[in-house]
Amino acid sequence: MRKTCFVIAMTVLPMIAMAQENAENKKLNATFGEEVSRIWDNTKRFVKKTGTAIGDEFSFRGGELKVNGTYYMPLYDTNLYNCKDAVTIRDTCRQMFNNRYPQALIQTCVIPQQDWISEEVKKDGSVVGYIQTMLCHVIAKDGEEGYINARFVFQTYRQVGHQLEIISEKWPLWERTDVIPTKDYKKLLKRMK
Question: How much is the pLDDT for 170?
Answer without folding.
Answer: 85
